[in-house]
Amino acid sequence: MWKLRRKTVLIPLTPNHSSSISTSSSSNITANPLLRCKTHHNSLFYCNHVSMEFDSSNNPHLRIHDFCEMGLVEKALLAYKNLNTLPLLRTCNALLHGLVKARCFDSAWDVYRDMVARGFSPTVITYGILMQCCCVQGDLVNARKVFDEMLDRRIEPTVIIYTILIRMFCNEGQMEDAKGVVRMMKESGVNPNLYTYNTLIDGYCKVADVERVFALYRDMLWKGLRPNVVTFATLVDVLCKLGDLKAAKNCFAFMPKFGVVPNTYAYNSLIDGYCKVGNLDEAMNLRVEMERCGIFPDVFTFNILIKGLSDSGRLEEAEDLMQKMDTVGVLSNCVTYNIIIYGYSKKGHMKKAMEVCSQMTGTKIEPNVITFSTLIDGFCKLGDVKAAMGLYTEMVIKGLVLDVVTYTSLIDGHCKDGNMKEAFRLHKEMLSVGLKPSVFTVSCLIDGLFKDGRTSDAIKLFLEKTGSSFKIDSSFCSLNNVMYTILIQGLCKDGQIFKASKFFKDMRCNGIKPDMLVYVTMLQSHFLSKHMLDVMMLHADILKMGVMRNTSICRVLSRGYRENRYFRSANFCSKHLREYCRVFYTRKVQVVTP
């Protein structure tokens, strides 16, 4: 946990300080009311302290303030540099606030350094602005230093400054440190306000600690703080993400009791929850309810509904809903089109997917990397590698940078097409541009080598890519179930059961649980080779791992034992199979019967 350092800290503010900037898109700010409220809250922090300090006389200090208010920060900076007299502290604070608001972070830190160099002692207002700057930049390290320096100067942080620091810890998922700051502020006699509670609730929601979320909610009610729309929207969102729609609906219905009107974000969370469980009728009803209450759906609302329809295979309805967006004044975006393109590509309807892509460009929306990756993957899955490579060429011409997903789709397509030379060329290309192949990329290459009859090369590639040999290249990737399954299947098909057994043991030693496919493949190979002792050892392992109830495994064991005249073992497996089927169908009848 972070502890305060009481020694004097001079913040290392370098010209390239903004290298750690982590900004959010305007669409994300619009979608999250918590961010909107926090931004407004921090603007009030400065305005309430500074605006009253200026008199109305026409002087250069006031001009700097006016320039900042109008967003003309370049003119404000120029006026600051041209001052003939020592600037006032309130002028510096006004300029700092304007620069942070305009996201001119380098200039803000330059002004702060100039203030310190001129002998100014920063005030609580100055530190509040600096903390907000660190928050917008996502610079938790420097925020800690600013906070420590503030305490060293015997300046008491306000509830807003504490909340900013808490928010930064919450954004990083460091909830213990956030708790430490809350404890510190209480010891200093500063009581958390509604914004502090909302920040903490949002932080615990991000780490899915629902118990703590509702403990905070009860605590704020006990202290007489009335939850606002941000509080309820956050609670509804986390409950929907956890799949507890009943609780989410109850929480949503509780809002009017506190005089809180649901906003678009709260409705979107609930609609998304119903879409994810396949209850599209209820999701659609919520959209109608929104409009009836005078809350207009935004692009996120429509995208959620379109995705729900697309995932359910109702692509025509999804397209109709997209067309309806224009009639209600909501413009579809790249995400909207990508959802429908993905839906058609997943079903193998590539002609329709390309038509939607053409509509997309017709509305002046340029396809992005996700659009091309989706189309390339769709064509590769249909075996149309030529069309996929055509899209690849178009991406290169447009200057779009291919990602790992795009390369993996193309490599998989060429491997299935038997063109290993082109597959490895693409693999080499992705390495040259600094992309690290994923587990699936390597798995495609290994599978392709096995199908091409190059078993030794497949094993060699597996060892190189997983670090299981002395030769480890820069594209090292971690072991997983998929890679082992492909390797073991390939070796068994090639008749190399002993090598397959070796890798099976390695798989278990590395803590990777074999799936049903691995067990079935190994059993079939051992039965075929009459390795009955190995079969029995594998059977014991299956019982130990608790996968005996799988019907495929039971059938393979029962048939294999019977063919090899191990009738007692065959009867044992048949009994397991019958018992499993009886339990399965009993449960199915209980579910179906009202």
TrEMBL record:
Pfam families: PPR_1, PPR_2. Keywords: Repeat. PROSITE patterns: PPR. InterPro entries: PPR_P_subfamily, PPR_rpt, TPR-like_helical_dom_sf. It comes from the Eukaryota. Belongs to the PPR family. P subfamily. This is Putative pentatricopeptide. It comes from Lupinus albus (White lupine).
